[in-house]
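User: Please fill in residues for this 324-position structure.
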C-alpha cells in the first residue's frame, strides 16, 4: 500500500503540471486561482487510496480523480455565492475577488472540465463511472437545494439535516472511494462496501465542518467563524440547541436568530455561548463519533489486509479531527 504522502504528492503534482486554458482571461483566471489554492484535495486522494487498496494502478485513476476535485470546487464557487461567503481556504472567494457573474460562469466551466477529466477513464469502465458521477452530481445539487430550503423552514428535524448532508457532502466522498474501486476493478460487493464507508465518513466529516464553524480557529479552518450562525443555517448544532433548550435559553435563541437588529459579532458570540451552556458542542462531538464508528466498522469488514487499510484509516481520522 502506497503511503498517504506519496498519494498526496501525486495529486499535487498532477494539478501543478496541468496546463488549463487561459483565454479569455476573465473566465479562466478564477478557475486557476481556485484550483491553485489546493486545500486538502481529499476527494482525489481518496480515489487513489481506494484504487491502491484494491490493487489497481493509481495512474489510471489520476485524471478521473482530478475531475472529482474540479467538480467539488465548482460546487464551492456556487455555494459561496449563495452563502455570500467572504473567505474560502483563508482567501477571498471568487465572487468577492471578481464578481458574482464571473463566479457563476467560471463555475459552470469547471463543471464542464470536471466531465472532461472524469471521461478520461478507461473506455471499458467509462459507462459505470459516468453512471456513478451523474448520480452523485445530481444528488449534490439536491442537497444544496435542501440546504437553502431549510433556511426558511421552521419544521426541520435532525433527520432532515442528516439526509441533506448525506446528499450535499457524503455522496461525493463515497463516490470518490467507489470510483477508485471501479478503476481497480474491485469486486462489486467490496466497491459497494467502500461506498458505504464513504457515506458514514462523509456524514462525520460534514458534522465536523459544522462544528468548526462555531468552535474552530479561523486561521486553521480557513473560513470566518460563525458563518452558519449568521445565515441561520439548520445545522446539527442549531437543531440540537432548539431541541434541548430550556424556556429561557429558547427565548434567547429565538432573539438571536430572528432579531435583524443584532450586530453580527454579538449574534455569533451570543449563540456560541448558548451552545456551550447547553452542551451542544459535546452532543455534536458524540454525533461525529457515532458516524465515524460506523465507518470504521465497515472499513474493518473490507476484504483487505489491515496494513493496506492503514492509510485510509489515518486519513479518515484526520478528516474528523482526531489524532492518529
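Assistant: Residues filled in for all 324 positions:
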Amino acid at each position: 500500500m502506497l503511503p498517504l504522502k506519496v498519494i498526496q504528492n501525486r495529486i499535487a503534482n498532477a494539478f501543478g503540471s496541468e496546463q488549463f486554458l487561459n483565454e479569455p482571461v476573465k473566465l479562466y483566471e478564477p478557475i486557476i486561482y481556485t484550483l491553485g489554492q489546493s486545500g486538502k484535495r481529499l476527494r482525489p486522494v481518496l480515489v487513489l487510496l481506494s484504487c491502491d487498496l484494491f490493487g489497481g494502478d493509481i495512474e489510471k485513476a489520476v485524471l478521473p480523480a482530478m475531475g472529482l476535485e474540479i467538480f467539488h470546487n465548482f460546487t464551492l464557487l456556487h455555494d459561496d455565492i449563495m452563502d455570500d461567503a467572504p473567505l474560502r481556504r483563508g482567501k477571498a472567494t471568487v465572487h468577492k475577488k471578481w464578481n458574482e457573474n464571473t463566479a457563476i460562469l467560471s463555475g459552470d466551466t469547471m463543471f464542464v472540465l470536471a466531465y472532461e477529466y472524469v471521461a478520461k477513464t478507461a473506455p471499458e469502465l467509462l459507462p459505470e463511472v459516468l453512471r456513478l458521477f451523474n448520480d452523485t452530481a445530481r444528488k449534490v445539487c439536491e442537497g444544496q437545494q435542501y440546504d437553502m430550503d431549510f433556511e426558511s423552514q421552521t419544521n426541520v428535524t435532525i433527520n432532515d439535516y442528516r439526509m441533506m448532508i448525506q446528499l450535499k457532502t457524503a455522496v461525493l466522498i463515497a463516490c470518490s472511494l467507489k470510483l477508485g474501486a471501479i478503476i481497480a476493478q474491485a469486486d462489486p460487493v467490496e466497491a459497494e462496501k467502500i461506498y458505504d464507508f464513504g457515506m458514514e465518513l462523509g456524514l462525520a466529516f460534514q458534522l465536523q465542518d459544522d462544528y468548526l464553524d462555531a468552535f474552530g480557529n479561523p486561521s486553521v479552518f480557513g473560513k470566518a467563524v460563525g458563518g452558519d450562525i449568521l445565515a441561520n443555517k439548520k445545522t446539527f448544532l442549531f437543531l440540537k440547541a432548539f431541541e434541548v433548550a430550556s424556556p429561557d435559553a429558547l427565548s434567547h435563541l429565538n432573539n438571536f436568530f430572528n432579531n435583524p437588529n443584532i450586530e453580527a459579532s454579538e449574534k455569533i458570540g451570543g449563540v456560541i455561548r448558548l451552545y456551550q451552556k447547553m452542551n451542544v458542542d459535546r452532543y455534536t462531538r458524540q454525533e461525529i463519533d457515532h458516524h465515524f464508528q460506523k465507518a470504521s466498522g465497515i472499513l474493518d469488514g473490507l476484504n483487505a489486509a489491515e496494513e493496506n487499510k492503514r492509510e485510509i484509516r489515518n486519513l479518515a481520522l484526520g478528516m474528523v479531527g482526531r489524532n492518529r
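For context: The mean pLDDT is 94.
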